[in-house]
Amino acid sequence: MNQNDYFRKSELTRRALLENEILRDQASLAISEASADDDDAVKAAQAAWREAQQAVIDTRQELIKLEPPDELRAEVDISDYFQAAVLDRDLDGAAKELNQEMKIDGRWDIPIGLLLPRARSGDHLPADMRATPATAITDEVDVNTRPIAERVFRETDAAWLGVGMQTVRPGIQRFPRLKNGTEAHILGEGQEADGVAATIEDFQTEPFRMTAEYVVGEETLKRVGSNLGPLLETDIRMVMGEATDDEIIAGDGASPTRPPGAMNRISAVHYPNLASGAAADDTAHTWADLRGIAFNFQDRREMRSTDSLKLLMGIESWRYGHGLHYSDMSPEPDAIQAIQNLGVAVRPSAAIPAPGAVTGTTKTTSRGLMQRALLAAHPENIQFLSWRALSLMRDPYTGLSRAQTKLVVSLLFSMAYVRSEDNAIRGCRKLNIVLENKG
């Protein structure tokens, strides 16, 4: 299967998975709404759910089969592309044959399989070659680019949450979004459903550029030697993974067309103890308050059980929660452990913005301290789209006097929110964790 065929089938399979997940969610709701006195209706709803769930499993298996086989990258190393760029020469040997076989036209474009994690040493690049932080993002982008690996960022907070990471074809992408939600009904013969219909919209995603830079010279190439390839793979995943987390979780959507990250997309804010009003953030949260995260937000549709929840917390909130106990003499686990014991997966993240001081109308003599958190049951409603390639560009002039060449690695990306209303993400909640009392 060539590269174009692979991505065509991959894209169709991912769309099928999205459709099957919607059917499964509707079937799940139908089970809860079926009358317990109507055995036939309950059995029919359960059968529909099992069929939908099996379709989801089968589609996911199809995606696994579509992953690029290891033999595509067995004889080629990412260092082949970097060395060709430094020396300003065309690819040759196995790298050239691989790109021709996969129909990759760019002079130094890196095939998808070469960026997948390998079971190798985790050594770091020399300091004089390490990438600058991948934070440069621009709106002016040429939309013609090549494929990129889906699992490059598997160690990121976004991947841990379960954010959908898709590779898409060159060009502007149009994406389906389900708004408003709908309801499933169990109907008798001749009956008609009376409810709200979901709205399916078609909206456009545009690419934005994420970049990291490397400075390479002859001395560096000779010093690093055969270790260049795996070290570059690790470093690219590390710096771009960090920037990916920053964008998905807390991106500010600075341009008019770039979607904000999840924390800035969701406008409604909730407190772990369900407090509301001006006094909600007056008092630091207790052990019981934080433990309530596990069950206070459950419903029959989006957050059905504790074992489906994932909580991404800031570092300060994580530290605070581990210091909270039921009582000074209690053998009970701390607040974080209590949440985990109820089935919720919890992870600290430096991508969550640092705590901020808050003020309110009830107490103003001093400011309290509060930090956001993200609670997700359906993180797949957040989609991270990459335009299928890491582009490698050569700048021979910046380090010319030092016999060095600057290489710029670029990733084109965008974000999309599916099954979500404006200023919200279905199956996700933004929380305020109060760390310090107001005066």
Q: What structural keywords apply?
A:
single chain; 439 residues; alpha+beta; Major capsid protein gp5 fold; five-stranded mixed sheet; 31% helix
Helix content: 25-40%
So, the CATH homologous superfamily of the largest domain?
Answer: Major capsid protein gp5
- Low-confidence segments: 119-124, 135-150
What is the succession of H and E elements? HHHHEHEEEEHHHEHEHHEEEEEE
CATH architecture label name of the largest domain: 2-Layer Sandwich
Number of E-state strands: 13
Structural class based on helices, strands and sheet pairing: alpha+beta
How many domains, in number, for the residues? 2
The gross shape turns out to be: globular
Reading off the top of the CATH hierarchy, the class of the largest domain is best stated as Alpha Beta
Polypeptide structure, described:
- There is one protein chain.
- The protein has 439 residues and is an alpha+beta fold.
- The protein is built from eleven helices and 13 strands.
- The protein folds into two domains: 1-66; 120-179 and 198-439, Major capsid protein gp5 (Major capsid protein gp5 fold, 2-Layer Sandwich).
- The strands form three sheets. Strands 6, 7, 8, 9, 10 and 13 form a six-stranded mixed β-sheet that branches. A five-stranded mixed β-sheet has the order 1-5-12-11-2.
- α1 (3-33) runs antiparallel to α2 (39-65).
- The longest helix is centred in the first third of the chain and has 31 residues, at 3-33.
- The protein starts with a helix and ends with a strand.
